[in-house]
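COMPLEX REQUEST
Ligand: zinc ion
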Amino acid sequence: MLKTGFVWNEKYMWHDTGNAAGIIPAGFNVQPLQHVESAETKRRFKNLVDASGLIKKLELIDDRPISDQEILTVHTPEYLAKLIKLNTTGGDAGVFSPMRAGSLDIARLATGGVIELTDAVVNRKVKNGYALVRPPGHHALPDTAMGFCLLSNAAISAKYALETLGLKKVALVDWDVHHGNGAEHIFYQDPSVLTISIHQDNCFPPDSGAREDIGSDVGLGYNFNIPLPPGTGVEAYIKSFERLVIPALEKFKPDLIIVPSGFDAGAYDPLGRQMMTSQGYRTLTQMLINASENLCHGRLVMCHEGGYNPSTVPYHGLAVIEALSGESSGIEDPFLEIHSGMGGQILNNHQEAYINAAELTLKTLTSYWK
Ligand code: ZN
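STATUS: Structure written out below.
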């Protein structure tokens, strides 16, 4: 029986974002502290997968450094030249995206990990998979880094699936709490990739992720933004999947689903204001597994994005990998009881209003689909 694929490389943790007060670089008026996008959250996630024994139930997939040519399927030559220079000197590659020497080499491995996992899933070497990579990718634009993201891991992998593996249609379901603006931009005029982003309304980037942004040209109707208000909990997320995400997938009928997976919609995250729990992520994962089995032979690839609470993210991640693999680690999330009992987990009227509005958007979108 096929296992769940898992991508990890300790080198991902050696991408050094330096000192910052959260996201603000340390300086004369800013006391140094560890940058919020540090290795710790991801390494602790991996450590829990190891310590729980779950790692033994997974199939490890090797990464590889992607080539310049592969980077250029999504990014511009000018931006690649900038990254190559900063790979020696270090510096900021764009908007809030610190690099150190070697960061591009590590980013090439991270994207290569997602590509190799995609290859393994499509070629039935594994049943589905999770790539625990770093640096993240979903804010990176063709010509600039943004929001800690250097290369667009998910978008480059989607291009690989279309151009090298010969798939016809890919759907991206980005559940990071921040808008998946990179893939939106890259595929805005491309009907072969349905980009879905469910995110906290206008959180990051500023003025990004509106329902009205639905694609253009031949891509009109193939970008679906689902903003949710701050304070959204598990029931509203599940309703959003039931009424919006899953129906969109069923109608689009992708050959592959890629999930840019951030856990910063989790309760306690410092960069988001949502209320998700490990059980909530488990449920959403199961819904995506069911959809992928109905629509595309179970082809479901997740690649790690944000999530900045080093105490809670490992349990969110463990729940997702348990669901993907159908295996139990035997470890219970010690935060689940307190997170589940917090106010806001039940669907509120103002949250439902956002879902109702997005349902109208979905009707508009599908009216353009052939
Ligand atoms: Zn995020």
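REMARKS: The chain has one domain: 4-14+33-366. The CA atoms of residues 46 and 314 lie 7 Å apart.
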